[in-house]
Amino acid sequence: MTETDALAEAEPTAEVAFEVERAERHYTRLRRAIAAWFRRRGGRAGGIVGEVLLLLPDLFALTTRLMGDPRLPTWTKVQLAAASAYVISPIDLIPDFLVPLGLVDDTVALAFVLSRIVVLMEGAGADILAEHWEGPGNVLGALLKVAGAADDILSGHVVERLRATFGSSPAREAAGNQD
User: Fold this and answer.
1) So where are the chain's domains?
2) Main-chain phi, psi angles of 44, to 5 degrees
3) What string of DSSP letters covers 127-173?
4) pLDDT at residue 177 in the model
5) How far is it, in rounded angstroms, from Cα 130 to Cα 149?
6) Mean pLDDT, the chain, integer
7) CA 72 centroid distance within chain
8) Which of 5, 19, 27, 7 is nearest to 135 (CA)?
9) pTM score of the predicted model
10) Residue 12: which H helix or E strand, with range?
C-alpha cells in the first residue's frame, strides 16, 4: 500500500473534522454575503456577475466534498485545499469586502482549479465532479460559464494571476492540447 493509499483510508482526525466544519461555516457566510448583495441591488442578479456569484457557494461546497473523496490523488487534494484557502482568506487579489468583485475572483479561482482537475484526470475527473455537484445544471457548464466570464468581469492581470496559481480554463487546456 502506498503512502497516498494509506492517507486516503485513514480515519479523519479532529483537525480534518474541524476544517470541514470551518468550510461549512464559510459556505453559509458566502450564501449570506451574496444574498445581502442581491438585496442591496433590489433583488436584481446583475447580469453575468450575478450568475457567477450565485455559483460560488456551490463550487466551494463541491471543492470541500472533493477533498474527502478517496478516489482523488493527494496532489489534487492539495490543489483543492489551496483554492479553498484562497476563498476563505479575506485578503487575496481582490479583497472579499469589495463585493461583488472580491467574491468573483474567488469563484474564478475555484473554477480554474476544478477545470484543471477535469483535464488532468480526463473523463474520471468530470464524473467525480458530477457525483458531488449539487448546484444548478451541469457542473462542466458551470465551470465553462465562470471561466468564460472571467475575462469580461475581472482585469486581465487578475485573471492571469489566477490562471497561473490555480490552473487554466478547460477552453485554454483544450486549445493547448490541439497544438
Assistant:
1) 3-177
2) -80, 140
3) HHHHHH--SSS-HHHHHHHHHHHHHHHS-HHHHHHHHHHH---HHHH
4) 41
5) 21
6) 79
7) 16
8) 27
9) 0.74
10) none
